[in-house]
Amino acid sequence: MKKIILITTLMICFKCYAQDCTPERLRKLEGTWKEGLKGSIKNVTPADLIKEKNVTGTIHKMISKNYKPTGCQITYGSAFGKTPYAGQIYIADPYYYSMYILRYLCDPNSVDRSKFYVDISTPTTVNVAANVIYCLGNLYAANMEPDDFRGYLKLEQRPLKKDGVWYLGEKVVGDYGRPGEIKEYRWLITYGDTLPFSFLNRKEYLLIQKKRLEKTIKEQSNSSYYNTFLKNINDQLLASEEELSKPAISIWNDEERFTGFVSEGTRGSFFAVKPNLGYYRKSLAKSCPQFFTVVYKISKGDPVFEDNYTAIKTAIDFAALKNMLGK
């Protein structure tokens, strides 16, 4: 009888122990999908909205068919719309599909040691956007607003062609140098080898800076500070046509205080670019995706984030997205 009691007690204890909440156990649990709050809808015609929702729905089906979340809940949703500025004409609507990886976490406040809950926020996300590059100061399928304060957009890295699509590079966007460092990986899917933006050459960039500096000097009572930088610009404009035709690469905070161009890859440098309106097929409806950007953002070092990030990358078929362009 004592042996039976002892065995029963051990089995109960083992069962309790096995059900204790641990990160390792939660990591292996089957994940779930949950549709989030409805995203914004702004300045989209009803007919275009139906087609755009069909595109984001197709993207969701592609991912959910090929990917099963583990140790987390995937909250997903879409948003549609734009806010045109005066003089800005859109060739195609921007819209996007987003995923948020919300981990399962043990609940230390519960008397039930097996209890867990879904995290309420996350640094790890995936965005598939049509007709907009958010990491490029928001490049849309449209001309820049005529009175844009800068006159160009900043591209941190030259795009590299990989497996038929463009890699826009990676960037640390949070907790720099820490174990949970947050990084973004950016991809661009276009028609063939073309890009929806073009590089400003040095002459174009210098003329933009000169115009802006001359305006600043005119408005400032004490303009002597800016005269040195204006001279730098005028001196650079005397360079050969070969030099002036090179891509403009400048330092991030060295615009109105222009001191000279820098080499590609210099820390804090950028390429000056502008929308390439010749890229687009202008006869298409505004709802048609004419390029996609895919941005993975992940907090490094967490096993759940790493597991799901790796699986989602496999599930997002760049070839399938490319096949959707113009349709």
Structure, explained:
It contains eight helices and 16 strands. The protein is of the alpha+beta class and 327 residues long. The N and C termini lie far apart (75 Å).
Could you say which structural class the secondary elements and strand pairing correspond to?
alpha+beta
Per DSSP, what share of the residues sits in E-state strands of 2 or more residues? 25-35%
Helix content: 25-40%
**Rounded radius of gyration (Å):** 26 Å
Termini separation (Å)?
75 Å
By DSSP (H or I, 4+ residues per run), the number of helices equals 8
Residue ranges: pLDDT <50 for 5 or more in a row? 1-18
Overall mean pLDDT stands at 90
Q: Helices and strands, in N-to-C order?
A: HHEEHEEEEEEEEEEEHHHEEEHH
What are the salient characteristics of this protein?
single chain, 327 residues, alpha+beta, ten-stranded mixed beta sheet, four-stranded antiparallel beta sheet, 16 strands, 31% helix, 26% strand, globular
